[in-house]
Amino acid sequence: MSGPVMKLLLRRLLTLIPTLILVSLLLFCILRMLPVDPAAMSLPPNATNAEIEAMRIEMGLDKPLIQQYGIWFGNIIHGDFGASIHYRTAVSKLVLDTLPATIELALAAMVFATLFGVLGGLWLFYTRGGVVESVLDLGTVALLSIPEFLWGLFFMLLFGVSLDLLPFIGRLGAGVDRPETITGFLLIDSLLAGSPLTFLDAIRHMILPSVALGLSAAPPIMRILRSTLMDVYQEDYIHQARQRGISEGRILIFHALKNAFLPTLSLMGVQFGFLFGGTLLVEIIYSYPGMGNLMVDAIRNADLPIIQTVGLTYCVMVLLISMVVDVLYLVLNPKLREA
């Protein structure tokens, strides 16, 4: 790995630590403002005031808020995220069990958004100046105005209920055996277990929620790609290629797209971060057993340890996505490496 890439990784890792501390502090303090007593929630309904007070002391809730945060953050550094009030088990286990499902869904949605966005952006640019471009541009505005959960409901009713073409509940069908957990990622585990039927069934269950998520992320990719292509087409090397008799299609794909894709890549990183956070509602709609469902259950049961850990996990994932995109941008852009 080259020196500039290593410097960028080191700089991003150094900024990651204070960002996580700030986010965790805000998350911890805001949750403590809620009218919820974790000590009372962790005891049976018939617990006495004395038992509740003893539990408060045991959980450290009698200490000042900043001291409570210090204890919680210190435990996190040692890998102890606490125990769930509702599930009575380690929060880290619950998050690790559900995180792979959310990552798989977000990645599938991003693959669809990238393909749909890049192809749509090329089509928008190729039809520039005509009636087709105006129609497509209006279509992107319409796509931008529809949130992912509405797409999810629409696809469920159309393709799941009315046409009965695709499953819309869970990650696997009722009669499909789940392979032994090796990595936690269902698609990878099914391939490692030599179970193509399980793999295909998992893919079928991911189509509707991933497309619903991807459609909300694709329109900005289309529009920024079209805009950057218009800027690139003003460059001298495009005019020189045209004078050499190179076809417009080859100029677009082999000359302009390479340079126009870099700003689009930055936007894709931002969209992936939003998309990862947007899985929550879609997971609820499709009963998809990811972190979104875990978060909603935690909110319903006022399970503060889960809410804190899931919120921190979302933050870490978004920061890691941003770091990966920055590294890719540096690798693909020689000018930045030289600078």
Automatic annotation (TrEMBL):
Q: Major location, coarse class? A: membrane
Has the keyword Zinc been applied to this entry? Answer: no
Membrane-spanning intervals of the chain: 105-126, 138-161, 260-286, 306-332
The membrane topology noted for this protein in its Swiss-Prot or TrEMBL record is: Multi-pass membrane protein
Q: Which residues form the ABC transmembrane type-1 domain?
A: 99-325
State where the protein is found: Cell membrane
UniProt cross-references to InterPro entries, sorted A to Z: BPD_transp_1_N, MetI-like, MetI-like_sf
Q: Give the keywords, sorted.
A: Cell membrane, Membrane, Transmembrane, Transmembrane helix, Transport
* One family name in Pfam for this protein: BPD_transp_1_N
Family the UniProt entry places it in: Belongs to the binding-protein-dependent transport system permease family.
- What protein name applies here? ABC transporter permease
Which species expresses this protein natively? Pseudodonghicola flavimaris
